[in-house]
Amino acid sequence: MASSSKPVFVLVPGAAQNPSHYAYLQHLLLSQGYGVLSALLPTVGATAPLTAEDDAEYIRSRMLLPVLDLEKHDVVMISHSYSGMPASAAARGLGKADRVAEGKETSVLGQIFIASMLPRGGDGKDVIATFGGQMPPHIQVDEAENLIKCADPIPPLYQDVSPTLAESAVLSCISHGLTAFKSPCPAATWDEEAFKGRCAYIRTLHDRAVPYEVQNMIIQATGQEWITKDIETGHCPQLAAPEKLSSIILELAKHFEAM
């Protein structure tokens, strides 16, 4: 297909969540003339030993490269919480400078992280190690089923979402494969030269799952300069304040397009 003047948002859902949790946000972005692609990560609902690297490879081969190389569109990547780790790894070599050097006309213009984990990866450490060796208190580990579960997701994830929508969001959740959290984190790309000035972090000010103070520590630990934006929600702004979140995302996308 012919290249469009606007990029496609590749939206990677967070742990245990699926594209339906981002449906209205996607509608808002589509309504502004942008393409949107989202998909369920392989490790969601996976009792088999699928790894974080499996997620990264899926994002790259089934979400990013088809848009870049088959449909010939630029991409702005959006990730949330857990997915920031495999999504960033998936973008290796796909930044604008790298793609231009290869004679390619399309690229990942920027990466937007929403309350995300940002492990540097590539060092053999897993997600649990980034939590200090223990899962957050709202997460329960089921070793027998190889899953992580949350008995009551509303307080940590959806405390500021309307009750009916919060209950529907919980009903739509799928437990996440434990191996994804116990396998080595693949190396991130937010520190690559090609993405310098092209990475943004949206901080969720009232987050109970990844508190604001922790998000600041995560950002500082990278040693990189970030574009930062704040939104006055809990961990899931796509449900709590989708209009505001879409406005922030569109502002960032336009910045990346202009670079």
Question: Can you put this structure into words, describing what you see?
Answer:
With 259 residues, the protein is α/β, with parallel strands linked by helices. It is 36% helix and 16% strand. The protein contains 11 helices and 9 strands. The strands form 2 sheets. A 6-stranded parallel sheet has the order 2-1-3-4-8-9, sandwiched between helices. A hairpin with a 4-residue loop joins strand 5 and strand 6. Helix 2 packs across helix 3. It is globular and about 50 Å long. The model has no long low-confidence stretch (mean pLDDT 96).
Tell me the strand order in the biggest sheet: 2-1-3-4-8-9
Distance between the termini: 24 Å
Helix content: 25-40%
The structural class is alpha/beta
State mean pLDDT (0 to 100 scale).
96
**Strand share of the residues?**
15-25%
Largest sheet: 6 strands, parallel
Please state the oligomeric state of the protein chains shown: single chain
Please count the beta strands (DSSP E, at least 2 residues each).
9
Distinct helical segment count = 11
Q: Low-confidence parts lasting 5 or more residues at pLDDT below 50?
A: none
Shape: globular
Radius of gyration: 17 Å
Order of helices and strands: EHEHEHHEHEEHHEHEHEHH
